[in-house]
Amino acid sequence: MKVSVVMPVYNEAATVREAVRRVLAAPIQDTIELVAVDDASTDGSAAILAELAAEEPRVRVLRHEKNAGKGAALRTGFAAATGEVVLVQDADLEYDPADYPRLLAPLRDGRADVVIGSRFIGETHRVIYFWHYVANRFLTLVSCMLSGLNLTDMEAGYKAFRREVLQKIKIRSNRFGVEPELIQKVARGQWRVYEVAIAYYGRTYAEGKKITWRDGLAALWHIIRYRIAD
User: Fold this and answer.
1) In total, how many domains does the chain have?
2) Under 8 Å CB-to-CB from 216, ≥6 apart: which residues?
3) Residue 11: left if φ>0, alpha if ψ -120 to 50, beta else—which one?
4) Phi, psi of 200, rounded to the nearest 5 degrees
5) Which residue range forms the structural domain that includes residue 171?
6) What is the domain-level CATH number for residue 137?
7) What is the pLDDT of residues 17-76, one digit of tens each?
8) Which of 85, 91, 101, 211 has the greatest number of CB atoms lying within 10 Å of its CB?
9) Which tens digits make up the pLDDT trace of 135-161?
């Protein structure tokens, strides 16, 4: 099958080249299309992506003229994706494309419509930021209570969808609120959801991590909002 990997990029010049290399070298037999959406980076990421696209026909690059956030970048990338399956890949090397076989297996076998990665069910992960973990567990609990899905990691960046699922979801969140929004709307759509273990190599703020406590508060609002709103 054809897999569209949608990669939001914002000021990831230090990692985006290696992230693209790993995506294209993922250990799967499927055809890969990488749709990179540069969200008005100011650090040279756009030039790197343009260079990679010129060298590699599997890479397509879209660009926002103004920075709008991860949700907006995903909205752009999802609309441009042509694969039967669409997979989200961050550009910061926190998630490893070596996990693609796990994410795609339930979709390939026809068991799932949506597959969510989990950093907390048995795979390797870097040990940092205890309070981030606590916040994630709380937000995941609230999300599960409202959605009825028994997920262990609502905020995980690895999510894979059959393209027809995304065609029926209208994304409104522009920033990191897109993660809880997608979960609530998938639950409301009553699609078949699987969760698989993924590795996680989290980075520190000094290394470029962008999510903050404000995004945690916003996530709580988005969980409640998109449980009842379109």
Assistant:
1) 1
2) 135, 139
3) left
4) -145, 125
5) 2-228
6) 3.90.550.10
7) 999 999 999 999 899 999 999 999 999 999 999 999 999 999 999 999 999 999 999 999
8) 91
9) 888 888 988 898 889 999 988 889 999
